[in-house]
Amino acid sequence: MLRSLPRLSTASTSSQPAYLVLGAGSAGSVITHRLREAGESVVLVDAGGWGNQGVEKTGIKTNPLHFWKFSMPSALTYNLDPSSKYNYHYHTTKQPTMNNRSIDQPRGKVIGGSSNLNAMVYIRGNAGDFDTWSEIIPEDGGIDWSYKSCLPYFKRAQRDLTPERPFPDLEPGGTDVEDVKKYKGYGGPLSVTNGSTFSTKTYPGKPKVLNRSPLFDVIVKAGVEAGYKYTPDFNGKSQEGFGPMDQTVSSRGERCSTELAYITPHLDSSGSPTPGLTILPSHRVSRINFSGKKAVSATLIDSTGTEKTITPTKEIISCLGSIGTPQVLMCSGVGPASELSKHSIPLVHDSPSMGSNLQDHLEFYVQFHSKKPVTLFPVGNWFPYPWYRVMVGLEWIFNEGAGLAGSNQFETGGFIRSRPGIKFPDIQYHFVPGAVVGQSSFLPHHAYQAHCGTLRPTSRGSITLNSSDTSVSPNIDPKYLSTEEDVKDLREAFRLTDEILHMPAFDDYRGDKLGHKDVDVDDDDQVDKWIRNNSHSAYHPCGTCAMGTVTDSTGKVKGVEGIRVVDASLMPNMTSGNLNSPVIMMAEKIADDILGKKQMEPEDVDVWFNEEWESKQR
């Protein structure tokens, strides 16, 4: 069935809402949805245009033909391209520990934010992450961030569509189907499924263009052969092990961004926001205005350069992300006094930790040629098989998301511990039956790769200003690999990855090494050099307005009034996995606090940790 063309949306107008939400990314979309659901009036602002509904709207210009760049799960790399207008295209400062390279940091410049650009991987993190948060964030009568208090909000957000999934020739490692269901939500806005639902989907009388790669199952078998457990759901009782990896994709095989999940329910049949909601796309936040220590309004600049000021009656909520939120707050006078004085910004409040504590995940690809033609090579590039790309796209459009295009191609993966003494996984694998350069260009070979990254780096960087003008990108300095522990952890991750990819399960597929054939796995210097030259960001910046230092447990900025932060900048420490799902949970949880609602009842559920974690790596 041919999917319908996207709707066009226009903003209603309101200059004095109850709430002003700055940033329509993952957190901003959730906050807006919950405030409107409660009957509160909201103005939602974003520097970008429309995305997942296929609309790029600036003034009267629209381009509905871009819908596939957002909606098609396998098209996830298109908006990472330097030509994309839906991306801020940030870069870090040159990193001396990484051969003086400047590392890409794409962020979504679009309604739905980075949930419209990301790889759609649905990973909540480990229960241990949130229990650690609860220990270091003073509750102060605010919010408890322990895992048992976060789980109800993960479930509230989720609409689980994943099938029950016994794995061929493997036992579920002590986690049965009933256990898995205890951790899932079934009635939320955010659709969650597995790519195999669509890559294996068929219609009577309609042959598949290409079959799902058997390599997705091979990596899991290899992990089990290496001594790790099979885990049927990384978001359930146990994160540790190898198994299927879920994605935020709808039942129709479309990317389920927060724009689709949380904003479109508040658009009428013509695509306009319903009464009480104003959406202002293509409006950049110039500054937040203070009266004394109270945030009272925000000044915006539209695509024509025209200024307008919005004055909410209740609160301003910054959801501009780990780069945008500290930048705007510093440009508005809230930040380290020494940093503000460099740019002649009048000081409203000296917040020494604003913009510090920047964290990010680093990862690398370990790649091999495949001896069998079972990879994404035929559809990875236009040549030499252009018809395959076209046919796979048409299969997705006309058959309700069926085929390879309905999957993000991260269908399986794994979480392991790097060494004894680590209680829960600090290494993550995304497996792809293809080989890419960077995040977008496929190599012209039948090949496969394991994306490998460490999960809890100890390096800490910062966001600082280049200008008092928010249109000028700030300095993004993650200080990657600035601690010996981070270097050691990535080195060990490389070796463990090499071991897994040499398990018997890969013997029928494993060809020559790609990109690391001259690296002696046992030579520290060679491995470290390769890592410094080949690692890149997983695009997970966080921590720059951390709860407990810059903000309190409810996201309110310390030292001022009327302004709250809700985005990944609140994380005191990184979560162990992709960040989109925990950010959505955080927004769901803080939304209740904004509305004065009692927090949902905590849920005590079993969490599995290896009983011998102190003495054994697996």
Automatic annotation (TrEMBL):
User: Which InterPro entries would you find in this protein's record?
Assistant: FAD/NAD-bd_sf, GMC_OxRdtase, GMC_OxRdtase_N, GMC_OxRtase_C
Query: Which superkingdom does the taxonomy of this entry point to?
Result: Eukaryota
Among its keywords, does the record have Transferase? no
What cofactors does this protein use? FAD
A Pfam family found in this protein is GMC_oxred_N
Q: Which SUPFAM superfamilies match?
A: FAD-linked reductases, C-terminal domain, FAD/NAD(P)-binding domain
Which keywords, in A-to-Z order, does the entry hold? FAD, Flavoprotein
Domain Glucose-methanol-choline oxidoreductase N-terminal per the UniProt entry, residue ranges:
108-131, 321-335
Binding-site residues, FAD: 110, 118-121, 285
| Listed GO MF terms | flavin adenine dinucleotide binding; oxidoreductase activity, acting on CH-OH group of donors
What does the similarity note say? Belongs to the GMC oxidoreductase family.
Q: Which PANTHER family match?
A: CHOLINE DEHYDROGENASE, MITOCHONDRIAL, GLUCOSE-METHANOL-CHOLINE GMC OXIDOREDUCTASE
Q: What is this protein called?
A: Glucose-methanol-choline oxidoreductase N-terminal domain-containing protein
Q: Which organism is it from?
A: Triparma verrucosa
